[in-house]
Each structure stands twice: as structure tokens, then as C-alpha cells.
Design the sequence.
């Protein structure tokens, strides 16, 4: 564990961050896995605006340049995630890692959702990392990355209606005390903790595997912090890095 900074955030946010954990059997599955978890308070939410559109447009240019006409799965960073999905039984051609799903939408241009979501999507495609953003105030207990038992609740939408699904046993999931917050490592977030145009306190999860390189998570985290401060100059941000060789409790 590495504490990046906790200055300025509330005691509640510091407590949440300190309690984030990654289960040993997940790290056994991928010993090269590292995660940077960031909390941000005092954010200024809202509809997409000129600043958030600029962040996403610049990231789209950078991502297209990196791809250079290749398919997303031909990038080592994406191929690594496909292998990680297969390791717990997922089929990445059907349920794609989040960064691959975004990269596949580049030709048409990524949708503009809200200013905070657009900012973290920009970091994802620019840095070739899965990034998730959720409403910190909707969490019940800390975030934990675990292998599912199969009876955890996952709040979602099916056929336009609220629904509750369950992960497959052994699936890698993020969860809190209530249920699943994200299925298949970084494939799909639940509705309960999702970020909305009213979110002012958020948690961001940036996932890394070996192909990202030793400094990739730090670069993505710095990129995200910079973007959030452009959008919300008064925000307070803190982060924590967890890796297999750094006990996470």
C-alpha cells in the first residue's frame, strides 16, 4: 500500500480509502495487478460543458494516434485485460474490459454524458487503462475487490426496468457491504453507486496490469487529478495504490 496524499479530504473519505482492499485470491489470479483508488470531494457536477468536452476531445485524438489504425485488442494494454478476463472464465469478446469498450467507440466519437464522467472516460482512453467513477455517498462500507460467491446482488437495468442480477461464482467483482458495485473487474457498474449529474463526492478506480508499465498508474492518476481540478478548482483529492507486493489489509 502507498498513501499518495490525504490532505484536505474529510475523515470519512480517509477512512474509506484506508479500508479499500483486494482479496488474496484476486492477486493470485493476476500477481501483476495494481489499482489506484482515488477519492474526490467538493466536485462540481453537471451537464457536459466546454472544459469537459475539450478534455474528451483531446483524449480522443491521443487515443486514435496510439491505435494508429489497429484494433483495440491489438494493443498490449488491452490484450492483457482480455487475458485477465479469461483467467476467471469471462469471454472478453462478449463482455469487454471497459477501456476496450470505449476505444471501440472512437470512430463515432465517445458520447458526452456529464462533465465528471466525461473526464474519467478521457483519462481511460488517453492512458489505456480501465477507469471507473462512482458516487462515494452511495457506498455502504468500503470498496473490496473479491472473487464472487454468486449470491451477491447486482442492481442493474434490464429491458428498461430495474433488475437485480447475480455474478457467476469466481467472477472478479468490486463490492461494498450491500452488494456488487462493478461486475467482471471493470466491465459494468451497478445503478446504485453510479455517478450522476448531482454527484459531488466520488471514488475513482484505476486498474493496471503489467503491460501498462511501472509508471502507468501514476501517470493516469495525475491526469485524472489535473482534470478534476480543472473542472472543480476547490475539490480535495486523495489516493491510495495497492499492489501484490504491498499488503493491503
Sequence:
Amino acid at each position: 500500500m502507498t498513501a499518495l496524499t490525504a490532505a484536505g479530504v474529510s475523515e470519512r473519505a480517509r477512512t474509506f480509502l484506508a479500508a479499500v482492499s483486494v482479496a488474496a485470491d484476486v492477486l493470485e489470479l493476476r500477481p501483476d495487478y495494481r489499482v489506484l483508488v482515488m477519492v474526490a470531494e467538493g466536485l462540481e457536477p453537471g451537464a457536459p460543458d466546454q472544459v469537459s468536452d475539450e478534455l474528451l476531445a483531446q483524449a480522443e485524438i491521443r487515443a486514435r494516434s496510439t491505435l494508429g489504425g489497429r484494433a483495440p485488442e491489438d494493443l498490449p494494454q488491452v490484450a492483457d485485460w482480455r487475458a485477465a478476463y479469461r483467467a476467471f472464465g469471462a469471454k472478453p469478446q462478449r463482455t469487454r474490459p471497459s477501456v476496450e469498450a470505449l476505444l471501440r467507440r472512437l470512430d463515432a466519437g465517445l458520447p458526452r454524458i456529464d462533465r465528471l464522467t466525461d473526464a474519467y472516460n478521457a483519462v481511460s482512453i488517453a492512458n489505456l487503462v480501465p477507469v471507473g467513477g462512482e458516487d462515494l455517498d452511495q457506498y455502504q462500507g468500503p470498496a473490496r475487490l473479491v472473487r464472487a460467491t454468486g449470491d451477491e446482488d447486482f442492481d442493474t437495468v434490464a429491458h428498461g426496468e430495474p433488475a437485480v442480477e447475480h455474478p457467476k461464482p469466481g467472477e472478479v467483482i468490486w463490492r461494498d457491504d450491500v452488494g456488487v458495485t462493478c461486475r467482471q473487474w471493470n466491465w459494468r457498474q451497478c445503478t446504485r453507486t453510479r455517478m450522476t449529474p448531482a454527484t459531488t463526492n466520488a471514488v475513482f478506480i484505476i486498474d493496471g496490469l503489467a503491460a501498462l508499465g511501472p509508471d502507468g498508474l501514476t501517470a493516469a492518476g495525475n491526469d485524472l487529478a489535473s482534470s478534476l481540478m480543472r473542472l472543480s478548482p476547490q475539490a480535495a483529492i486523495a489516493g491510495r495504490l495497492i499492489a501484490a507486493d504491498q499488503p493491503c489489509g
About this structure: The mean pLDDT is 94. The first helix runs from residue 11 to 19. Residues 6 and 238 are 5 Å apart (CA to CA). DSSP finds seven helices and twelve strands in the chain.
